[in-house]
Amino acid sequence: MTMNNRFVLLQATDHMIGLNLSGTARRCIGVLVLIPIILAVWFDSKIASIVVAILAAGMAFEFSKMLKTQTILAILSALLIAMQSVPLWVFDGGVLWHSGLAVLSFGITLICSGLLAGLFALALSVCLYFAALLLHQPDGHWLLLVLAAVVAACDSAAYFVGRSVGGIKLAPKISPNKTVSGSVGGIVAAIAVMVGLTNVAALPFVAGLDVLNALYLGCGVAVLSQIGDLHESALKRRLNVKDSGAILPGHGGLLDRFDGYLFTVPGFYLFFFAI
User: Fold this and answer.
1) Sign of the four-CA dihedral 57, 58, 64, 67
2) Is 21 strand, coil or helix?
3) From CA 5, how far away is CA 245, in angstroms rounded?
4) Which spans in the chain are helix H?
5) pLDDT value of position 127
6) Is pLDDT above 50 for 162?
7) Which of 69, 102, 120, 227 is a good FRET partner for 111, with 20 to 30 A between their CA atoms?
8) What is the DSSP string of 71-127?
9) pLDDT at residue 252 in the model
């Protein structure tokens, strides 16, 4: 059975058991799932770092299951990835420690499941470390909420614009439903939200960002978010997996929810604290 036929079979199975929710319904469920997470992140940086660490453990577990191997190497790779999100106020091994974890997770996953999976392990590992770094900053949890708003705007606009306008496919071999029009719509929405939060709402922790830099940042976040989404889609196709997990019936797993942060979190941190 070819890979495409297997995906058709998976989709048909979902439909037969009544889990084939519409894209709109999936996004509504996604918002409901994120509400308690957003409230926790809103409350305090330390609480936010604990929540992120719990989510990271779930994502690492999902990733190990996606590899479809129960070897000790897959388990070890998942553990190394999850360790990246340990709050820095609990343990901070420094850049060399976290770099070593990332390289090891890449190498182990490369051996288990090939280059694409290895690169995803590396990206996830680096993302989680930068999330820990971001939440270690005084206003880190607020910045993470700003990033969440921009990524959500990009994702939602890309879906609705792509569905309404259609047109040329963005990456038909990786994600057949994504369109160029949707991608552009997502970028425009991300820029609008970023400019709005920084220059209209003038939130204190991002108020120093002028319109031009906000435009650049919004565009960058949108592009990186879509790259993260496509990376996970490519990996799922390579591993012949429909969803990364089943946190909610018909909705997918944690990695399906947070793939847009894979490259945006490191980029966001570097923009504010390293450039």
Assistant:
1) negative
2) coil
3) 20
4) 3-16, 23-43, 45-66, 72-83, 94-113, 115-135, 140-165, 180-195, 211-239, 254-258, 264-273
5) 97
6) yes
7) 227
8) SHHHHHHHHHHHHTTS-TTT---HHHHHHHHHHHHHHHHHHHH-HHHHHHHHHHHHH
9) 79
Report the predicted TM-score, pTM, of the whole model to 2 decimal places: 0.85
Structure tokens at 166: 């259609």
From the number of C-beta atoms within 10 Å of its C-beta (0-12, 13-18, 19+), residue 222 rates as buried
The pLDDT score that the predictor gives to residue 166 is 87
Cα–Cα distance, 104 to 111 (Å, whole number): 11
Phi then psi for 233, rounded to 5 degrees? -60, -45
Cβ-proximal residues to 266 (8 Å cutoff; 6+ apart), any chain? 126, 127, 130
